[in-house]
Design goal:
This protein is an alpha/beta fold and 294 residues long. Helix content is 49%, strand content 13%. Helix 7 packs across helix 10 and helix 10 (230-246) packs antiparallel against helix 11. 46% of the residues are buried.
Length: 294
C-alpha cells in the first residue's frame, strides 16, 4: 500500500483517484472546487490545500487542466511542493508538454523524483483501469512505480523524463485530425445527398472506422456528454503545434484540426465532448443533454 496525494478531481482525476482508493491505497485528495472532493470523504482524506494533500505522502499525483494549473497547484500559495518530503515522487499525469515537465523537475524540492506519465483514454477507460500510460522516467523509477500505475491501466516506459509528455503529444496530434476528418467526410456526404445512417454504416468499416463507431451515437443525436472535453482537445493541439514549431515542422493537418476545434469552441461547445467539432463542421446544433459533470 502506498500513501498518495492526488491533486485534481475532474472527470478523469475522479475516476483515477477512485481506482487507487479501491485498490487499498491510502489516498489524500484535493480539488480547487471542494464539492468535487465531497464524494471521497468517507474513504479518503480530503485536504483543504495542495500542501495538505502532499504532506508526508510517498507519491503525489497531479491530474490537472494545463501547465499553468499544475504550476499553481505545486508552487503557488499552499502549494504541494512545500509538503513534499525528501524521497517522495511526483507523478505528473496531465497533458502539459515536455518543456513544462522539465521546468517542474527543476523546481521541486531536492530529493523529489519527477515522473511524467500522461494517459491515453477517456472516462470509461479511467473507470475500468484500462488507460494507456506513457511513462517518462529512469529505469529504476519506472520499476518502482509500475505496480502502482498498473492500477490505472497499462504503463508503457517510453524513455527518460519528458518522453511520456512527448509521446502524449504524438498520440493527441492524431485525435483532432481524425475527428475533423470524420466531420468533413460527413459534411461532404450530406452535401451530396447521402443518408446519414448509410454513411455511418460504410464509414465504420473504413480506415476511420474506430473513430466513427465510438462517436456515432453522439453525432447522430446531437448530444455530446463529455468524455474528453473539446476545450482540452484544442489546448492539446496548441501544445502539439508549439512543439512542432520549435522542432522546425509545419504540421498542416494539425493546424487545420486546431482551427476547427477553435471554431467549435467559439460556438460554445468547449465543455462538450471533443467530437462536437463534427457539429461545428456540419453546422448542426450540439448539447450536453441532461448530463451535468461539474
Amino acid at each position: 500500500m502506498a500513501t498518495i496525494g492526488f491533486l485534481g478531481l475532474g472527470l478523469m482525476g475522479s475516476a483515477m483517484a477512485r481506482r487507487l482508493i479501491d485498490a487499498g491505497h491510502d489516498v489524500a485528495v484535493w480539488n480547487r472546487s471542494p464539492a468535487r472532493a465531497e464524494p471521497f470523504a468517507h474513504d479518503a482524506t480530503v485536504a483543504t490545500t495542495p500542501h495538505g494533500a502532499a504532506a508526508g505522502r510517498e507519491v503525489i499525483i497531479t491530474m490537472l487542466r494545463d501547465a499553468d494549473a499544475v504550476r499553481a497547484v505545486l508552487f503557488g500559495d499552499g502549494g504541494a511542493a512545500g509538503g513534499m518530503a525528501h524521497g517522495a515522487t511526483l507523478i505528473e499525469m496531465s497533458t502539459i508538454g515536455v518543456d513544462a515537465v522539465m521546468d517542474i523537475a527543476t523546481r521541486v524540492p531536492p530529493g523529489v523524483e519527477v515522473i511524467d506519465a500522461p494517459v491515453l483514454g477517456s472516462v470509461p477507460q479511467a473507470q475500468q483501469g484500462r488507460l494507456r500510460i506513457f511513462v517518462g522516467a529512469t529505469d529504476e523509477a519506472f520499476a518502482a512505480h509500475r505496480e502502482l500505475l498498473s492500477v490505472l491501466g497499462e504503463p508503457i516506459h517510453v524513455g527518460g523524463r519528458g518522453a511520456g509528455a512527448a509521446m502524449k503529444l504524438v498520440t493527441n496530434s492524431t485525435l483532432g485530425v481524425l475527428m475533423a476528418g470524420l466531420g468533413e467526410a460527413l459534411a461532404l456526404g450530406r452535401a451530396l445527398g447521402l443518408d446519414e445512417k448509410v454513411m455511418f454504416d460504410v464509414l465504420v468499416d473504413s480506415p476511420i472506422g474506430a473513430t466513427a463507431a465510438s462517436k456515432r451515437d453522439r453525432i447522430t443525436t446531437g448530444v455530446y456528454p463529455p468524455n474528453f472535453k473539446l476545450e482540452l482537445a484544442r489546448k492539446d493541439l496548441e501544445l502539439v503545434a508549439a512543439a512542432a514549431e520549435r522542432a522546425g515542422l509545419d504540421l498542416k493537418l494539425v493546424r487545420m484540426a486546431r482551427a476547427w476545434l477553435s471554431v467549435a469552441e467559439a460556438r460554445g461547445y468547449g465543455s462538450l465532448d471533443y467530437s462536437a467539432v463534427v457539429a461545428a463542421i456540419r453546422g448542426t446544433e450540439a448539447s450536453a443533454g441532461d448530463q451535468n459533470d461539474e
